[in-house]
DNA sequence: GAACACAATGAGATCGATCTCATTACGCTA
DNA sequence: TAGCGTAATGAGATCGATCTCATTGTGTTC
């Protein structure tokens, strides 16, 4: 394949001049510039970014690691990141960790060897992450996405998970619910799940209600109704459930209806994430919307700022409670025996 | 940052020997190998892939372009591709085109400059794609995903869209439906949409039924019920609808139910893709499953074969019809006036 | 101990750009 | 036309590895 040297020869100039034709055309005589460009065209010259990267010690590539692309919340965020990155002249190397610390480690090492200019990571557990400890010693700019900014060294882009779930909880309380439960995926100890549960607990306690332990589901994307069934039966059963993500909520609604229960008649269900699809379901999903597209943009902007040497301290992004049809007012027939009276 | 030269110096060997310690340790005396590795450890040496890539003229990176990550069918496929690629020691550069030919062009040019070892593309229209015409002159191995293998030059990974939609149509016919319509996204002319419509038409005609034109929706992910309403009313209205993708189907089901209609009572709905979520909805989605995870694996395997210089001719991947609850037998009350009688 | 085969190591070119610094060319004024 | 300042261009080093080929070192055999 044609390289700059061959272009330079054909145009009758030196490599340096040929290079300038691309990087700073204004420093060349118009005629020289034209000759070089013509030679490049004739030879089908295509600049080699690898060589540029080696020489300039900048790859203009960002490494992105998300737990999974099966959850639209990550896919939608990635979509926004890709667009923002490309607009800024950067490419993304995309990887999935499956929440596996071993894979996280290997992926990050690989990306460092690739000399990415920056890393945007979503890890399982930011404050006990081996990979973050390692990165602390490295000079590659690094940004957390979704993870709370517990690690003092790394800026973080995400919503205030605790406040967001507290909002959702208060919303259900305002709808008249008193017996409210919460379900989550298999990583109960994940930093976000923990914060969300704390938000739930605080809102419950602030209202004089009893928070329950997080009910663990075997998968992030699918409920096992059997794990929840005990909490649902009888007059003392739950009347509303908060889910740590939308996929769980959607799956829960499906299972409930398949088992003959109605939503929100028998149980109000709230999601978390605000994936696009939730709007179009019936009943439409009541959920806490994380602004995923903005996540992506802000993540890239912040990472680029870090790369430029700035020390941005991004604020938590605002979450929005989207009222759908899956959570509603508590039917009179299911009012708690003891009325709420502060 | 430490480079091989500094490692070599510290270990008291030449660069060549230091390099061999990593690439072919067996060719070194154990003692020499140990000294080099120790020096590397002390200096925190991390091999520079950019330099390796320049020198070996192989990046071990694959360029992936999909229309969008907002549709789980692409996200799930990408997830599988990433795992397969990483298992083979390759990284993915991921981009989204939004079906925009201009962006397709820019993205591919960018990836060629990056000297990716191979490209896996999903384009809007394989047989009139400017970007594919350009790629035909290039030596970079290229694979189409989802696009039918119309372009003689490029292998393609995907299901047989025509046969798949014909199967779905026959399924509905077998359920007693006679007035069956089909809806699609804004790209009626997309190669896949066209093939799927052809499959539908053939199956209809083979059964002596009248196929209808594809009803165009303004977006890929969301129906506008108003566009469909005219076809639904009265005793002559449709009793079943095929959708070109699952998101449309899910959105359609939601809209129908919200407007007071039941699914499949008033209208049977079939999707296409088989995204995971469809299983968990209520009613669960009847759909044609494209094996997305297998797509990803096969795509990577085929592309790696191309890179090795083989000329694989991948077969269409098998599709599976998944019977859900959104499509059912035609109620007796809605039997067509003229019974089907070949 | 000399000769030889083979293993281990080193020297230097190379991949394809960029960048600095030196040199040449050009335009302007006197 | 000479002199000068600036614009335009070129020569060569450099980024960090790999690879070929030459050389040195080691061990075996007679």
Automatic annotation (TrEMBL), chains A, B:
Family annotation (CDD domains): HTH_LacI
Keywords of the record, alphabetical order, are: DNA-binding, Transcription, Transcription regulation
HTH lacI-type domain location, by residue?
A: 2-56
Q: Which InterPro entries match?
A: HTH_LacI (IPR000843), LacI/GalR-like_sensor (IPR046335), Lambda_DNA-bd_dom_sf (IPR010982), Peripla_BP_I (IPR028082)
On whether Cell cycle is a keyword of this UniProt record, the answer is: no
Read off the PANTHER family from this record.
Answer: LACI-RELATED TRANSCRIPTIONAL REPRESSOR, TRANSCRIPTIONAL REGULATORY PROTEIN
Q: What is this protein called?
A: Substrate-binding domain-containing protein
Q: What is the lineage of its organism?
A: Bacteria, Pseudomonadati, Pseudomonadota, Gammaproteobacteria, Oceanospirillales
